[in-house]
Amino acid sequence: PPTDDAESDITAVVSVPTFNLYVGEANGYMHSLPAAGSAAAFLVPASGYPFRDTTSAITGGAVYDHVQNRLFFGNAAGHVYTLKAYTNPWTLNTNFFRFETDDYLGATVAITTAPLYRFGVLYVSNAGGNLFLIDANNGAGGQTLMKTYTVSTGALSDISYDFTTNRIYVGTADGKFIAVPQVADPTPGSP
Fold first, then answer.
1. Any residues with CB less than 8 A from the CB of 118 and at least 6 apart, and which?
2. pLDDT band at 148 (very low <50, low <70, confident <90, very high)
3. Has residue 1 got a pLDDT over 50?
4. pLDDT at residue 179 tops 80
5. Whose CA is closest to 13, among 120, 100, 111, 80?
6. Exposed, middle or buried: residue 112 (CB in 10 Å: 0-12, 13-18, 19+)?
7. Which secondary structure element, helix H or strand E, spans residue 100, and what is its range?
8. For 50-78, what is the mean pLDDT?
9. What's the pLDDT score for residue 3?
10. How many CB atoms lie within 10 A of CB 190?
11. Exposure letters 58-87 (e unless 16+ CB within 10 A, then b)
12. What is the sign, positive or negative, of the torsion defined by CA atoms of 168, 118, 148, 16?
């Protein structure tokens, strides 16, 4: 980690979706470190990491798209990030994208869970009881909100997928279990 980062708390679920370990911090840094190898190798971050766009804490786990080599995660400001392969430097709307849920809610509500990625659609829940369905690539390189469900007044759990029913499931802070149908990518063929 950078020297100004040495005292920050880890605030996100540690994720190992690839050969790298992804760790989010309270100061807004997302790290990518080798998940295997020697102790010395573990101290060398992946090219372009740590990533930071804002100082808002990374509060949810990361999910990796193995087909398009993209990383998805959220933060305390309600932003949902998509990081593509690193090219120097990190540039908004080129190799990383920021979807701001507060644009749709009119308030900042933290993304505190790991998103779910299924066939071009990103399912993201927040601490305010909202479930967002986002077109992960709208064909123009950006992201587009497809639908929002307000299913609770409190925090939602991580999102899961049931292969037998093609439904997306999320638990609520008030003890409910919500199912929504999986939706098709509105821009198929877009990476």
1. 161, 168, 182
2. very high
3. no
4. yes
5. 111
6. buried
7. strand 96-100
8. 90
9. 45
10. 15
11. bbbbbbbbeeeebbbbbbbbbbbbbbbeee
12. positive
